[in-house]
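[recover] target loaded
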């Protein structure tokens, strides 16, 4: 064994043993009456540093990166619940390094909550919306929380004679504490009306959206964002793949965390064409109600149901309401890769609006590469 490596292993061992020994003595000396800061100093600071920025690698004796808890870019987006799971069960429960020890035996549940609350307080800038407001993504209702995410969505209409498949590639990037830019590339393929099979795949209207969280309150679980989406007429309207004019869609996105693990997300606004002769102005309202169940094994199941309404602002038009029952499931231990499946069921104005199968895969790339965290 290379002497340097041996030495670093020994230091790593000393850091881990030191943390546990330090903790044991504090537990004995002060029982449960410790603040989060005291628990941190005794049990965490040997690796995470006295100020939470991470101890020097020479001091900890391993080369795995240590997170900087004062960096809001990373620290604000996690939930206290996820961090408590890591502190209780150790790094591997969320696909992190085994260097992050499990404290489930050494600390009581209240002590874990206290030290996690302290760690979360190390990001001092309150402009960053808290991870608690980052709720599971519904199929139609867009999220209020600004994300760093890539998604592939797919939909299919299977009714004979009007079969259609559509795919959309979506890229979302946060900038600053509250903003997000999104680009969506849609592709679709229709069954030919004359019954001669499937047509060629076509690109639809490329969409670019800007979103800003205008109000957020992590304590009360409320977030409100304003978004404007532009649909660029890249699709061929004559073949049914585009609107034929630039579409402008300003909406308000709202989310509220409810008691008992439930949440409500809404999106309301209008969509109109730059050329009014090519597209009717439409009002839209989308509501998603859901909950998340995480039965011990780390995988989270989020059943949701959406009610979506759209109405062309023309006299005599009725509101077209749809119901979308759906389920999102986290795939990776780190919960940064998720899939969802749903079914759109038109409930009013059903003529010419067949049922539709919906699915997506999302990758929260800030939390790790596609291959990390399994
Ligand atoms: C022996 C060193 C060591 C000790 C002691 C330690 N940690 Fe860690 N911790 C780490 C390392 C290394 C990571 C990064 C793991 C990774 O990114 O794969 C980590 C990660 C974490 C994370 C996950 C951060 C994220 O990016 O999501 C949290 C939360 C955390 N530690 C809290 C604590 C708390 C609270 C304590 C004290 C009760 C503590 N740690 C004690 C080494 C340690």
């Amino acid at each position: 064994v290379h002497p340097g490596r041996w030495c670093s292993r020994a230091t790593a061992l000393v850091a881990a043993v030191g943390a546990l020994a330090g903790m044991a003595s504090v537990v004995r000396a002060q029982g449960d009456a410790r603040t989060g800061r005291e628990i941190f100093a005794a049990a965490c600071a040997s690796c995470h540093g006295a100020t939470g920025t991470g101890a020097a690698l020479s001091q900890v004796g391993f080369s795995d990166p240590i997170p900087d808890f004062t960096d809001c870019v990373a620290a604000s987006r996690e939930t206290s619940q996820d961090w408590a799971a890591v502190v209780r069960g150790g790094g591997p429960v969320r696909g992190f390094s085994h260097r992050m020890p499990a404290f489930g035996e050494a600390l009581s549940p209240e002590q874990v909550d206290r030290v996690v609350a302290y760690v979360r307080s190390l990001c001092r800038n309150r402009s960053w919306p808290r991870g608690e407001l980052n709720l599971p993504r519904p199929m139609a209702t867009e999220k209020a929380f600004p994300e760093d995410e890539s998604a592939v969505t797919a939909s299919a209409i299977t009714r004979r004679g009007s079969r259609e498949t559509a795919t959309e590639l979506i890229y979302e990037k946060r900038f600053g504490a509250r903003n997000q830019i999104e680009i969506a590339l849609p592709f679709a393929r229709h069954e030919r009306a004359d019954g001669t099979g499937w047509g060629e795949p076509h690109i639809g209207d490329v969409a670019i959206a800007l979103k800003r969280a205008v109000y957020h309150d992590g304590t009360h679980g409320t977030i409100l964002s304003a978004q404007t989406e532009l649909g660029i007429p890249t699709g061929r309207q004559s073949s049914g793949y585009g609107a034929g004019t630039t579409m402008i869609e300003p909406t308000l996105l709202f989310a509220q965390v409810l008691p008992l693990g439930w949440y409500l997300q809404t999106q309301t606004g209008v969509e109109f064409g730059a050329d009014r002769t090519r597209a009717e102005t439409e009002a839209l309202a989308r509501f998603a109600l859901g909950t998340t169940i995480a039965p011990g094994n780390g995988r989270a199941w989020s059943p949701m149901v959406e009610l979506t309404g759209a109405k062309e602002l023309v006299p005599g038009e009725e509101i077209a309401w749809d119901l979308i029952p759906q389920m999102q499931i986290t795939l990776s231990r780190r919960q940064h890769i998720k899939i969802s499946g749903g079914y759109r069921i038109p409930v009013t104005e059903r003529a010419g609006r067949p049922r539709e199968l919906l699915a997506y895969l999302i990758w929260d790339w800030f939390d790790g590469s596609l291959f990390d965290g399994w």
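[recover] notes: The CA atoms of residues 249 and 334 lie 34 Å apart.
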